[in-house]
Amino acid sequence: MKTAIYPGTFDPFTNGHDDILRRALRVFDKVIILVAVSPAKRSLFTQAQRVEMITDHLSSEPRSSVDSWNGLIVDYAKKHQINAIVRGLRPTGDFEMEFQMASMNNHLYEEIDTFFLPTGGKHYFVSSSLVKELHKNGRDIAEFIPDAVLKYLKNALGDGVL
Predict the structure, then answer these.
(1) pTM value?
(2) Where are the domains of the chain?
(3) Closest CA to 118 of 142, 91, 144
(4) Is 3-157 a CATH 3.40.50.2300 domain?
(5) If I label 110, which of 21, 57, 81, 139 is the partner at 20 to 30 A Cα–Cα?
(6) Which of 50, 128, 132, 135 is catalytic?
(7) Whether residue 90 lies in the annotated active site
(8) In this predicted model, what pLDDT tens digit does every residue of 110-161 receive, in sequence order?
(9) Cα–Cα distance, 27 to 22 (Å, whole number)
(10) Which range, of 11-20, 29-38, 76-85, 117-126, averages the lowest pLDDT?
(11) Where are the alpha helices (DSSP H) in the chain?
(12) CB–CB of 161/136 below 8 Å?
């Protein structure tokens, strides 16, 4: 079985993330969404809340699962003997940083390969940060995040701003 991990902070999980996941499932038998902690980012939701939101969204997708990790992604991959990382690329300068991370991961764990998927045309401008900013300013974000995530946001935060 070909398994890949798709790591990210996913704060919140967007339709762009979902697009990458669905396309990765065309290539891999199983994809694990790995909710990570990034010391450089200030998360709105706890890691457990993000896992819960994404798990709810993916409840009807048996070939994906959700896990969390607080260390290096490459260490998770090595621990679970996973040889593939999936990363989405937007035309916003993601490549240089992603290429550097992929190269370091391969240096640390020779058996790992990173597979880059360009974000689909209707999602290339969407980011979790922009979604939070739109919501904070009273804009409707329903077209940018999956229904299960939107429902969670409304239940957790009400219709007020993030």
Answers:
(1) 0.91
(2) 3-157
(3) 91
(4) no
(5) 21
(6) 128
(7) yes
(8) 999 999 999 887 887 888 888 888 888 888 999 999 999 998 877 766 655 4
(9) 9
(10) 117-126
(11) 15-24, 47-57, 73-79, 94-108, 128-136, 147-157
(12) yes
